Amino acid sequence: MASVRLPHRTMRLETSLFFLLTFVLGIFTVHSNEALSSMCNGAQTCGECISVNPECTWCTQATFEGRRCDLENVLQDAGCTNITNPVASKVATQNDPLTEPNTNTNPEDIVQVKPQRMKIQVRPKEPITIQLYVRQAEDYPVDLYYAMDLSHSMKDDLNALKGLATTLSQELSSITTDFQLGFGSFVDKTVLPYVSTVPARLISPCSGCASPHGFHNVLPLNDNSTLFASRIQSTTVSGNLDTPEGGFDALMQIAVCKDAIGWRDKARHLVIFTTDASFHFAGDGRLGGIVEPNDGQCHMDSSTNMYSYSTLQDYPSIGHLSAKLRENNVIPIFAVTSDQTQLYANLQTYIEGATVGTLDSDSGNVVELIRDNYNQITSQVRLTSTAPDDVTLSYRANCIHETVEDSSECSGLQLGDTVSFDITITAERCLEGGMTSFDIGPVGFSEQLQIELEVTCECDCQDIREMNSPDCSGGNGTLICGECECNQGRYGSKCECSGNEINMDSTDPSPCRTDNTTRTCSGRGECICGKCVCDNTGNPGEVISGQFCECDNFNCPYSRGLRCGGPDQGTCVCDIATRQPKCECKSGYEGDSCDCPTRKDMCRASNGLECNAHGTCVCGACECFADSQFQGKTCEKCPTCPLGICHIHRDCVECTVFQSGRLTPEQCSMCNFNIVNVTSIEEYTNDNLKCSFDFNNSCTFDFVVVKENETLTVYVNQEESCIVPVKGPILTGEEIRWIVIGIILGIVLIGMILVFAWRLYTYVQDKREYAQWENECKKAQWDQSDNPIYKSSTTTFKNPTYGK
Question: Alpha-carbon distance 416 to 400, whole Å?
Fold first, then answer.
């Protein structure tokens, strides 16, 4: 019997749990709906209503009595039959199919992204999900531009490239049948301290060298492999003074000069960037007196194919360069020497799609690097977008074998594989003009999904205005979305009142009451013609506002004794959603009481860094890290540092001169004092403190801080001091094995020799003692005598009394 009753008991338990769960969910839903309904009720117009929350709807029925903004089911229950509820929509205005694998298609007709254009209409805070398909076409055209550092240290690399030019063309032909090759060179800006400005050195900085230049577009992209090889053969190295090079100037011009370089619209754009040195970036131009920022425009002289603004504009910043590379779908492959690999590897974080490979000492493996990095680039698809800050995107990647949440990347792909992405788009607020457009697409692709986003913050009925409507007390107002906009001198929900007809008894006070309360206009106003007129005749400076007079500016938070920090920082307003007073901060301030400045310049240390890079800027003041030795207003004071001024400038020197240390590239670009590389700092150490710090374990770098006429200059030894370990020959495994065997045999042999030596020693010693014993025996003389130790066995006793 027990086996029969148990299922019924289980069923009853499950039924009870089901009803309990349903009851709890019902209560939660009711409270949730009540909160949403309360949020909607504060809206005064149809536009405000649909902007408060995507669940809010507006009743446009002219005869409806009650709150017009509420949840749709609430308005229906109240008898409204004409409800405005804008619905999100998405329409693909261009949706060409993806190119099928193994098809001979004109490059201009290849489609790798679907859809191509889409129009979306949503309300603020209303998410909408679209799907984007990506398939990398096989045998897709490739434009490969070779940008080479031609400083003198790259002479061996240039010679190797001359021998590999033909091999490079052959390698590209195995990747695609449609490719173009181009070649360009860079050195640095032709001003001090980057290059020698002695006239003869500007012509030839070294024996047999070409003149220095910023960037030279030696050969625009073309399909003539023979011409590519010949141009490289005729190229010679140049020279400059400092270690970093002007490669970022070259990359910027390569990216933005589409016509001069020869980029094709339907091709994968790759740049091979080869160098053995670090790079100059934004701010370094000040050392040469160049202060105008880089404008990110093309400045190629058509007659010389030279970058004409090299000495007029500063180097680009990393962020600016990254944006231009992404905008023009250019993917850089940094082929650098081993000592620079880590530096350029850090750029992968900031430049989308960039890859890094390590060159051999003579660049002999550049062809292999191109092949390997091209395979790496084509084996993954990663989405990027140009969406504005007030539009939020979230992704879900549907890859070949798995679905990855919160990811915009699929890897491990082969050409011809199709992947898709679910993209959720949310407009956080109403947009200026109501429209915006942006692109979403894979990194390095010339094809993008172009989105036109319309954020609905106005109702369609607001454009329909019935002037002098009979629904507005016989023509005393304009009917808009079911509500009356009263003519001058008239008021009331139906414009039924005029300035001389105020009569409290003739009006219905219920529209002037909030939910669950009997107080009209929150007890701080009068209900006249169905609307609250707040009483602002009380305390001077007190302002009562809101639909039900529920807000007063005295309840806004204070800062420094001033409401919302004072009129320069914020004002007190009534929040429609919460029906509570709140501070609306002005530009440059944030926080509940608008007491938190958003400016960062107040946290700037003397070296230009924010909080000396030893703290964070919070509300315009520095909060120094708890584990940092630095203290003070801008985290510059270091009581425990023996060399205070040295520690303040150490990070900037290390990142600017040696491209290392703990500062990020953005922080490094903030360093605002002059840094000069010199061969020796000894001449500057007379009256100034010499600073020395460890660098890369076995190295140190030295600098001197010199202050003259309020101008701070740091002179740095351009070469670090290193302890060079003595390197022995590298042994193979076979050699190490024979060495170990030899050592073991040596130990055994030495042990045997020692044992044999000891045995020989004891044998000689014993033989010598035996011979000595024999000699002693021969000298002995024998005779008869008593043994001195012998005693007779008989003893004779005499009696002393015998015979007496």
Answer: 12
Alpha-carbon span 140 to 135, nearest angstrom: 11
* Helix residue ranges per DSSP H, 314-466: 318-327, 341-346, 366-378
∠ Cα 662 667 670 (to 5°): 135
40 vs 65: CA distance, rounded Å: 16
**The listed CATH number (2.60.40.1510, 3.10.50.30, 3.40.1160.10, 3.30.460.10) that belongs to domain 89-137+383-455:** 2.60.40.1510
Report pLDDT for 506.
Answer: 45
CB 681 within 8 A of CB 690: yes
Per the omega criterion (within 30 degrees of 0), is the bond before 581 cis?
no
| Full strand arrangement of the beta sheet holding 391-398 | 113-114, 128-135, 418-427, 391-398, 403-405
CATH label, 142-379, candidates 3.40.50.410, 3.30.1330.10, 3.30.70.380, 3.30.70.1060? 3.40.50.410
Q: Which CATH number fits domain 464-501: 3.30.70.940, 3.90.1580.10, 2.10.25.10, 1.25.40.10?
A: 2.10.25.10
Place of tokens 């086996």: 3
DSSP annotation string for 482-512:
TEEEEPTTEESTTS-EETT---GGGS--GGG
Alpha helices by DSSP H, 511-664: 644-658
pLDDT over 80 at 708, yes or no? no
Sequence-distant (≥ 6) Cβ neighbours of residue 270 within 8 angstroms:
142, 143, 144, 145, 330, 331, 332, 333, 374, 377
On whether the pTM is more than 0.90, the answer is no
For residue 486, what are the β-bridge partners?
Answer: 477
Instruction: Classify each residue of 387-417 as buried b or exposed e, where b means 16 or more C-beta atoms within 10 Å of its C-beta.
Output: beeebeeebbbebeeeeeeebbbbeebeeeb
Predicted pLDDT of residue 338? 84
Residue 14 has pLDDT above 60, yes or no: no
Between CA 229 and CA 804 the distance in angstroms is 154
- Model pLDDT, residue 536: 64
- Any residues with CB less than 8 A from the CB of 695 and at least 6 apart, and which? 654, 658, 660, 701, 720
pLDDT for 663-674, tens place per residue?
887 778 777 777
Burial class (CB in 10 A: 0-12, 13-18, 19+), 650: buried
Query: pLDDT band for position 724 (50/70/90)?
Result: low
Cβ(421)–Cβ(383) under 8 Å? yes
With tokens 């008021």, the residue in question is 491
Is the pLDDT confidence value at 538 over 80? no
3-state secondary structure of 6: helix
How far apart are alpha carbons 157 and 180 in whole angstroms?
22
Q: Cα(78)–Cα(75) distance, rounded to whole angstroms? A: 5
Do residues 47 and 86 touch, judged by C-beta distance below 8 A?
no
Q: Give residue limits of the domains in the chain.
A: 35-85, 89-137+383-455, 142-379, 464-501, 641-725
pLDDT digits (tens, 9 = 90+) for 298-345: 999 989 999 999 999 999 998 899 989 988 989 999 988 888 888 888
Asked if the domains at 464-501 and 641-725 fall in one CATH topology, the answer is no
CA distances to 132, 140, 416, 417 from 135, in Å:
10, 11, 6, 6
Give the pair of three-digit tokens for residue 41: 């009720």
d(CA 709, CA 756): 85
770 torsion bin: left (phi>0), alpha (psi -120 to 50), beta (else)? alpha
The pLDDT, as a whole number, for residue 7 is: 46
Residue 24 clears pLDDT 60, i.e. is over it: no
CATH of domain 641-725: 4.10.1240.30
Spell out the residues 6+ positions from residue 780 whose beta carbon is closer than 8 angstroms to its own.
none
Q: What is the mean pLDDT of the chain?
A: 82
CATH top class, domain 35-85: alpha beta
